Amino acid sequence: MFSPGELAQRIGANAQEARLAQNLSRKTLAQMAGVSESTIKRFESNGQITLEGLVLIATALGSTRQFAELFKLEQPVSIEEIKRQGRTRGRK
Q1: How far apart are alpha carbons 82 and 8 in whole angstroms?
Q2: pTM of full prediction above 0.85
Q3: 12-36: burial string, b at 16+ Cβ within 10 Å, e else
Q4: I need a labelling partner for 33 at 20 to 30 A (CA). Which of 3, 40, 67, 78 fits?
Q5: Distance between CA 41 and CA 57 in Å, rounded?
Q6: Radius of gyration of the CA atoms of the chain, in A
Q7: What share of the chain in percent tops pLDDT 90?
Q8: Which tens digit of pLDDT belongs to each residue from 56-83?
Q9: Separation CA 78–CA 64 (nearest Å)
Q10: Helix H or strand E encompassing 92
């Protein structure tokens, strides 16, 4: 389990790995994403970024699918999974 700060740093490091795997410089990614190069540097080094900046960078890196799945509830795929979940009634 990660703290919020650790999670932000991990996401920034993952973005840096994705950028390097695509052989992109920070400057090139910044131009593609429409953000400043300093935004990329700050994000990769300590995870600090706005949600809008994060989405722009994810789009430029081709990683938007993960955003679409972020809070999606997983649907059971088998009868056994449905039985394990049990039935819930009413509101929580």
Answers
A1: 34
A2: no
A3: beebbebbeeeebebeebbebbebe
A4: 3
A5: 12
A6: 18
A7: 66
A8: 999 999 999 888 888 887 776 667 766 6
A9: 28
A10: none
Cα(88)–Cα(92) distance, integer angstroms: 9
Work out the percent of the chain whose per-residue pLDDT is above 70.
85
What crossing angle do the helices spanning 37-46 and 4-21 adopt, rounded to 10°? 120
- What is the average per-residue pLDDT within 31-48? 97
Confidence class for position 17, pLDDT limits 50, 70, 90: very high
Q: 16: part of which helix (H) or strand (E)? A: helix 4-21
Tokens of 27: 């400057």
- The structure tokens 């449905």 sit at 82
Copy the structure tokens of residue 21: 């795997």
Take residue 92 and report the two structure tokens written for it.
């929580």
DSSP of 67-91? HHTTTPPPPP-SHHHHHHH----S-
